[in-house]
Amino acid sequence: MNIQVFDSKEEMGAAAALAGADRLRQVLVDRGEAATIVATGASQFEMLSSLSRSDLQWPSITGFHLDEYIGIPITHEASFRKYLWQRFVSQLPLPLKAFHFLDGEGDARAECDRVGQLIGETTIDVAFVGIGENGHLAFNDPPADFETETPYLVVDLDDACRQQQLGEGWFPDFESVPEKAISMSVQQIMKSDMIVCTVPDRRKAEAVKNAVSGLVSPDVPASILQNHPNCHLFLDKEAASLL
Q: Taking the alpha carbons of 56, 60, 66, 68 in that order, is the dihedral positive or negative?
């Protein structure tokens, strides 16, 4: 795992976006098309802002959605579909070849099957991800399923994960935070040729330390990134403070 630490979130986000964009650019030269996964949440603000300004051939790139709550509409402030539209897809200078949003409002298992089939037919060149306060990777809370090959899963959100969503200001109270979500599986994320993991803030420092320095364990889902041959971790000083 390659680890880089930056003085500010802005520098961190710009460097993470540049690393992923450079890889996508090379894939486009080599193959003519590329595919990426993008994450959401407060940790991705600066990275997505920089990535959306990259001079890539966006009409040759397909995007996939990492996770989404079950049971909230796209108009909800916490909707990740809304987030990705506002902060990424609509900000691009040209439209993507395709972006496969996850719809958590209908039959969640059917939606897992639908998008799972699409990603199963695709080579993911770069996955942009983060790490949760409880060490989760996507919405794979501890103890995460490290074995299933199913691309997308219906998962239960633990209280620590739900508390993080409340703390970031996405919901008015704890009871409003959904208890279930659709999440890309750990094994599907690990199939990506390159992983760009962006993690700011002191509140993530313990999770970063456990993911980087501890044993690879389902109890720290992001620790599995230690096993990826091309994973790049971008931190600000606060997130790196316990390393």
A: positive
User: In this predicted model, what pLDDT tens digit does every residue of 53-90 receive, in sequence order?
Assistant: 999 999 999 999 999 999 999 999 999 999 999 999 99
d(CA 57, CA 195): 20
pLDDT tens digits, one per residue of 17-29:
999 999 999 999 9
- 105, 182 contact by CB (below 8 A): no
Q: Is the pTM of this model over 0.70?
A: yes
Q: What is the CATH number of domain 2-236?
A: 3.40.50.1360
Separation between Cα atoms, residue 193 and residue 18, nearest integer Å: 16
| Rounded Cα–Cα distance for residues 54 and 57 (Å) | 9
State the Cα–Cα distance between residues 61 and 122, nearest whole angstrom: 11
Structure token pair of residue 137: 């990777």
Q: How far is CA 165 from the centre of its chain?
A: 15
Predicted confidence (pLDDT) per residue in 81-128, tens digit:
999 999 999 999 999 999 999 999 999 999 999 999 999 999 999 999
Start-to-end CA span in the chain (Å) = 14
